Amino acid sequence: MLLCLDVGNSQIYGGVFEKQEIQLRFRYDSQQASTSDQLGIFLRAVLQENDINPKAVKYIAASSVVPNLDYSVRAACRKYFDCDPFILTSAAKTGLTIQYHNPEQVGADRLATAIAGVNYFKNKPIIIVDLGTATTFDVIDAQSTYLGGVILAGLRLSMEALQSNTAKLSAVEIIQPRNVIGQSTKEGMQSGLFYGQAGMIRELTTRISQEAFAGVKPTVIGTGGFAYLFEREHLFDVIMSDLVLDGLRLAHELNLS
């Protein structure tokens, strides 16, 4: 079995694969994974609670955008699974031509989703919109060239910025509101967060398509924790919540030899 871990700023998103089939998905608060023991004990417990023997995990693949957790991840894998993890970086085999000024600056999670995207949509231009702590756009042409992308504040980060930097605005549940025009402060914030993000996604998708693909319609893939929130907005051609985990699995396969 292969254990995949996407270490993000807010959460660790994990999955267990038996060959190419995902058997388990789970999330863990990144703030609680500050030591290798905390992470290792959680990982073994979540596997056992889902009837997966931790000893069945023979390989681990990870992506991380939190350098402070990299040591804990490696140490947890070695101590609790007797396994040296494969850590995805731009130096690994990816199957992509990375057209970034400094390829090392491309986040490992973005590399993973791009690897999966080109695997599922071969020889097609794609835009991957990942809605997590940040909302990111990754642009890949039909020749599997990673052209670059866009980074903006995600829904939760935007909400926390409003809460932290204003005197009277408090945290709200992030939902799709019934109306654009809110009739309370709470509704106004919810509308601004949801429709503001939707509007940015539409605008950026249009501009990226014009700039990168000369008007040729790319396949737009939605992924990340908030992607399904926008399902009825028709922003994406397809929503693939496991894209980063699939990308880690594929990257591990590419780099096994």
Write a structural description.
This protein is of the alpha/beta class and 257 residues long. 37% of the residues lie in helices and 24% in strands. The chain is built from six helices and eleven strands. The protein has helices at 36-49, 67-81, 108-120, 155-165, 185-213, 243-254; strands at residues 2-7, 11-18, 21-29, 59-64, 86-87, 97-98, 126-131, 134-140, 145-153, 219-223, 238-239. The strands form two sheets. A six-stranded mixed sheet has the order 6-9-8-7-10-11, with helices on both faces. It has a five-stranded mixed sheet with strand order 3-2-1-4-5, with helices on both faces. Strand 1 and strand 2 form a beta hairpin. Helix 1 crosses helix 2 (67-81) and helix 3 (108-120) packs across helix 6. It is globular, with a radius of gyration of 19 Å.
Blueprint (SSEs and pairs):
Elements: E1 2-7, E2 11-18, E3 21-29, H1 36-49, E4 59-64, H2 67-81, E5 86-87, E6 97-98, H3 108-120, E7 126-131, E8 134-140, E9 145-153, H4 155-165, H5 185-213, E10 219-223, E11 238-239, H6 243-254
Parallel strand pairs: 1-4, 4-5, 6-9, 7-10, 10-11
Antiparallel strand pairs: 1-2, 2-3, 7-8, 8-9
Helix pairs in contact: 1-2, 3-6
